[in-house]
Amino acid sequence: MKTNYVHGYDPQENIRLQDQASTLVELLHSDTTYAIGSRVLEAGCGVGAQTVTLARNNPGALITSVDISELSLAEAEQKALDAGLTNVSFKKADIFSLPFEEDLFDHVFVCFVLEHLPSPAEALNALKKVLRKGGTITVIEGDHGSAYFHPDSEAARKAIQCQIELQHRAGGNALIGRELYPLFVKAGYDSVSVSPRMVYVDASRPEFVDGFIKKTFTAMIEGVREAALKAGLAKEEDFGKGVQALYRTGEADGVFCYTFFKATGVKK
Amino acid sequence: MKTNYVHGYDPQENIRLQDQASTLVELLHSDTTYAIGSRVLEAGCGVGAQTVTLARNNPGALITSVDISELSLAEAEQKALDAGLTNVSFKKADIFSLPFEEDLFDHVFVCFVLEHLPSPAEALNALKKVLRKGGTITVIEGDHGSAYFHPDSEAARKAIQCQIELQHRAGGNALIGRELYPLFVKAGYDSVSVSPRMVYVDASRPEFVDGFIKKTFTAMIEGVREAALKAGLAKEEDFGKGVQALYRTGEADGVFCYTFFKATGVKK
Q: Is the per-residue pLDDT at B83 higher than 50?
């Protein structure tokens, strides 16, 4: 394999992709800063996609990253090792029965996790137990119903709806971003504040056209093709048209909008 | 009529409404500032809703506000008079055949106008003629397809769709916000830049719950009830459920999102 011709392996291409990732990382993470010596729990770190950013942005914080999957944890640990991080420890744990004493952490950080849980409200309650009084929780989630675009396309909207329905059937909620405020309030957090982070993409932002429209959002929708067809949610031809219409929004006269939501709250 | 009990006439209520309006005005208009002595054309001023803000924010600019409707112009003129504005003149004019010499204006300002025109691209071309080289155009438009909310409601989405369809049948485009970038580029403007202005409302922002969800957006959807029923776009019961569901998003656990788009470009 000529790796220098593969997308993402050409050094120049890599820098460009990192630029795109940096812009999105900046948008979502730049205002999450913890004091030196703070004990931070990252709940549901998965393969460590956010762990590296969190640890780099907060070199003085002592981060404990947990996930229920050993396989994911191993990958996250390797990622932290490769990045030379020394302020993160990893532990296998279930959010709903955390192996930590109460009030242990100064901060809890959760990114792209609640959308997969059948009971996000219970997760927020469980996380509150291990957070000290006055400590903060930060949650970042997407909302696939926030996606709209030009040219508008019913086929594209239906293809997105397949992903939303499949995630719903799997017990998750692809529209959870808009719901963070009431979820935080219901879980009893104080000083709840939600800040939408909109990704607006037109041809003047080519790094987002490629990195966000194509390689992130449309790739994700394309990824549920087999499952959507198998579940009878779409016909192959219609789903294909929807995916094509999503790629179409990345052309010179296209526009794509998507919003992430970042919520913070304080334990009373 | 006891005017002090009518919404908007009680002095305290009035202050509160002004606060809400100020927040929205700030969000949309605060970064539109023109140098002393600049000649500014406000195209499609209607009853002067934006004229007062534009003139107050730019006391040194010489503003010419035009509209095709004499009735609206008279109202706008009265509004300017009441506000004590001295830097605005009004003129009856059609955007598509403006009674001005070419290259006359330093800036063109258009707010909530293109959404009503069958040929917004032609309007942008016509406006370019009266703008000097190096002068700027600013356009602010909404996008009703950018509205989403919690609790989500199919009935609410269908009621909104009635408004979008009716505006489409009237030759307009209620989804024009997302389309400003390609429209500007197609019209040949340079340095085109579009900035989305999202209105995010939850119970922590009560001034927006009342002022935006209820009195602005839902009131507008309610306003097309008769037309929607007459056009056979909805059954009365279903439309009513949609409107109720929109009001429901203003309750303590509700969330409402809407995005305006502000575009600027320079005449080459």
A: yes
